[in-house]
Design brief:
The complex is a heterodimer of chains A (308) and B (318). Chain A is of the alpha/beta class. In chain A, 21% of the residues lie in helices and 33% in strands. In chain B, helix 1 packs across helix 6. Classes of the chains: A alpha/beta (308), B alpha/beta (318).
Chain lengths: 308, 318
């Protein structure tokens, strides 16, 4: 393992922000894994550290195929993470809206450019991503429809689901989109949580990556446990949204991943002062709980649950 | 001619919040009391999409005050929306509080989307079809801008003639960018509702002179559209910049404290100093920022702390 600083930014009063990369194996740039780009992506960084532990072991056992190299960046936005902020400390910009970056531009454009210069030539790019909707997800591989998306490789993670979604204008500045445009096969991996650690889904994600790398001829190891699904490929439109009319205190009545029947109670919204039930969210069809809101309060007109 | 106007305040959009409150986006519709003198031409004045930009607050107040002062001159509809992001304004937050989301990156929104997308959808529904929408911004808390209108090159032919009525100093026709397709202006312009984006002043402040300049421009534009028949002040001829390399950006080469040396909206010669970046701990000058050529400084940094890369100024090449 080779630990190296792949980008450094100086500040006036803080220590320089150093983006640390961990390189395993030697040779062609086969796989790059990026953990947290935002300061609240704790689970994403945690999942990377589990992956680094595993790759250390595999490298010691000579399980990395000769001529292949793997780079892991557990955390890019260390400055924000250290102060509990999601976006860039001074101007609140999002590094994951700055790719491919511009090395003579504004601060987060420069960070994106500095990182992208190092990671753009890898054959496979994996990002542990987070969604702007705050909540819990069933683990899945998510990809944008750019014309370059590679569904067959996505299935090799053996996750329960591969979700394909239409590209929106603001997606064009994300890491995943730009990787694809630069001809890297890019995959966003979603585990269950973002700002809290979910060790089980992190461990499963690491095993999923190991499965994929075995099938791609980058590792030769044996994977115990983890997911072994024949992934279902879905479009975002295939997910059934359950929206609330009311606002108040929110409580889930089912777990993420639970199979539910049409008419089953999924969640309840209660009056914050008097406690009476304002709304019951029920399943509009049989399905599996794919996404659920998790904050204790909820606004009206919010998608609280998504079913597969 | 009517001697009075109707002022109708209503909610354009309403969403329940968890604890005893609703988010409401308000509109004040001003129109002549006598429907016979109403041309039904409509101008919409929009501001407060970014909760830390407050210049538009004074513009809305002053515009309504002037219309009320001379009610018989109103011959069309003036819709004023002073707070598109009311929770942001109330909490000194640029984006939508609770979502950490830039409201000007979610248009055209969606009827069935998240609460924020629903609000965006309702705003587009509300503004579509107006004869003109003016979306007033105030840069951000970091930069001071000379009153200017920014136009996507895709809409140059339609919008530059309208912008000339607005009494701004500068019209910047900029390159098209996919990411800007999520803005209010892009969504409305692509729906054939002409929309001008104004940038003036600085975040979290009211620059009264700039605001009055904009109100003069709005009154003049209303007159051009047939919404206002009263006297208007002569407007200035803006500099119109549409070259791809017409603007020089100054980004901080070092992190530190930016101390400006040049005055805003002045002509600078090649080699003139825009400002220094200094280190208060050591007393050193970390970087001197000088102009590579002559031009007019139309953007200057207001907020002193800079990271490496922070924008400290923009120069219009002449």
């Amino acid at each position: 393992m080779n630990r190296k600083i792949i980008y450094e930014l100086n500040a006036l009063y803080r220590e320089p922000m150093q983006v640390t990369g961990y390189e395993f194996g030697e040779g062609e740039k086969s796989v790059c894994v990026v953990g947290s780009l935002r300061g609240n992506e704790i689970q994403q960084m945690f999942t990377c550290n589990k992956l680094i532990q595993r790759l250390k072991k595999l490298e010691q056992q000579n399980r990395i195929v000769e001529g292949k190299s793997i780079l892991v960046l557990p955390c890019v936005n260390t400055y924000s993470m250290n102060i509990g902020k999601r976006f860039w400390p001074t101007d609140n910009t999002d590094i994951n809206r700055m790719f491919p970056g511009y090395n003579e531009g504004e601060t987060t454009q420069r960070i994106a450019a500095g990182i992208f210069e190092v990671i753009k030539d890898y054959g496979i790019g994996i990002q542990f991503a987070s969604n702007y909707m705050s909540g819990r997800f069933l683990p899945h591989i998510r990809m944008m429809q750019t014309g370059f998306e590679d569904i067959e490789t996505a299935k090799k993670f053996e996750f329960p689901y591969v979700i394909r979604r239409n590209t929106r204008p603001f997606d064009t500045t994300t890491l995943n989109y730009n990787w694809q445009i630069w001809e890297t096969r890019a995959f966003s991996v979603y585990t269950t949580d973002t700002d809290e650690i979910d060790a089980k889904s992190a461990a499963d994600a690491v095993k999923g990556i190991e499965q994929m790398l075995n099938k791609e001829g980058i590792l030769h190891s044996s994977v115990n446990g983890g997911y072994h699904y024949n992934s279902r490929v879905l479009c975002d439109d295939n997910l059934l949204s359950v929206r609330c009319r009311e606002a108040g205190i929110y409580e889930n009545k089912v777990d993420i991943g639970e199979e539910v029947c049409k008419g089953q109670l999924l969640a309840e919204i209660t009056d914050p002062y008097e406690g009476m039930v304002l709304e019951q969210l029920v399943a509009p069809a049989d399905g599996t709980v794919f996404f659920q809101h998790k904050a204790p309060l909820i606004y009206a007109s919010t998608t609280a649950i998504k079913l597969v | 001619m009517s001697q009075e106007i109707i002022s109708q305040i209503s909610d354009v959009c309403q969403v329940k919040l968890p604890i005893g409150e609703s988010l409401k986006i308000k509109r004040n519709r001003l129109l002549p009391a006598d429907s016979a003198s109403n041309t039904n031409k409509r101008i919409c004045i929009v501001t407060g999409i970014h909760g830390d930009e407050l210049e538009g607050q004074y513009v809305c107040y002053e515009l309504i005050r002037r219309i009320r002062e001379n009610p018989e001159a109103l011959t069309g509809i003036v819709d004023v929306y002073p707070a598109m992001n009311p929770m942001g304004i109330d909490s000194v937050t640029r984006g939508i509080p609770g979502f950490d989301l830039d409201m000007n990156r979610i248009f055209p929104g969606s009827k069935d989307g998240a609460m924020t997308e629903y609000v965006a959808y309702k705003i587009i529904e509300e503004l579509s079809g107006a004869d003109l929408v003016v979306d007033i911004h105030a840069s951000n808390i970091y930069l001071t801008e000379i009153p200017q209108i920014r136009i996507n090159e895709l809409n140059e032919d339609t919008l530059v003639p309208l912008a000339r009525h607005m009494n701004v100093d500068f019209v910047w026709v900029h390159a098209s960018s996919t990411v800007l397709e999520s803005t209010l202006a892009y969504s409305l312009n692509s729906r054939a509702t002409p929309t001008l984006v104004v940038e003036a002043g600085v975040g979290m402040r009211i620059t009264k002179g700039y605001c009055e300049q904009l109100v003069d421009g709005l009154m003049n534009t209303m007159k051009e559209l047939g919404i206002w028949q009263g006297e208007v002040k002569p407007v200035r001829e803006p500099l119109v910049e549409n070259r791809t390399d017409g603007v020089v950006f100054f980004n901080a080469p070092k992190a530190g404290i930016f101390v400006p040396a040049a005055k805003h909206w002045t002509r600078l010669e090649k080699g003139d100093r825009v400002g220094n970046i200094v280190n208060p701990l050591t007393g050193d000058i970390l970087a001197e920022i000088v102009t590579p050529e002559k031009g007019i400084l139309f953007t200057i940094r207001e907020y002193p702390i800079v990271d490496e890369g922070s924008l400290v100024g923009r120069l219009l090449r002449i």
